[in-house]
Amino acid sequence: MLLFMADTLSESEKQKLEIMYDRYRRKMYTAAKRILNDGFKAEDAVQNAFVSIAKNINRININDEDALEGYVITIAKNEAYNVIRAGDKAELYDEEPVLSDPFSDVDAKVFERDVYEKIISVLRTMEDTYRAPLYLNCVMGFSVKETAIKLHRNEDTVKGQLMRGKKIIISKLKEAGYEL
Fold first, then answer.
1. In the 3-class helix/strand/coil scheme, how is 88-100 assigned residue by residue?
2. Is 93 helix (H, G, I), strand (E, B) or coil?
3. How many domains does the chain have?
4. How does DSSP classify residue 95?
């Protein structure tokens, strides 16, 4: 798919995509493999991530390496979670029905996925001031100190941004009707 999509890109966009691929494919693969524990699925997740990146290539600044690295790794992780979600959906159809209440776990899984997807949509609309620390700390697993270093910010500033960002997410979830 990526090869076909590359044909629709200009030469400068192809070069940008190639630079990003050369720089980050290994880190993206590592991040996806940590989530999936399967090299083949991790490769699929990275491929899907690059398709996603190619769709938005004209809006990406490859000169801001710190932000770019966080961005591409986050996309790879999100694609890895998409692979898991796709597998969960397939398992729902493959499993033998349980005689007690076959829908009790399904409701919980659907609710969890729904909440997860809502959180991701809220993160996508947040200001970068809050989104970047949340991604680095909560999604990528960096400590507050590591997040502050990556973002070139004061540690206390990052703590405050994380706290305010989490409050924004909780507020948006409550507005959407989720009980927390």
1. HHHHHHHCCCCCC
2. helix
3. 2
4. S
Q: Say whether both 72 and 151 belong to one domain.
A: no
- Degrees, nearest 5: CA angle 46-124-22: 30
Q: Are 46 and 32 in contact (CB under 8 A)?
A: yes
State pLDDT tens for residues 42-88.
999 999 888 888 888 888 888 888 778 888 888 899 888 888 887 75
Q: Are 133 and 147 in contact (CB under 8 A)?
A: yes
3-state secondary structure of 173: helix
Of the residues 58, 81, 104, the one at which a domain ends: 81
**Could you identify the residue written with the tokens 């829908």?**
103
* 5 exposure class (CB count in 10 Å sphere: 0-12, 13-18, 19+): middle
Domain at 120, CATH number: 1.10.10.10
Q: What pTM, to 2 d.p., does this model score?
A: 0.49
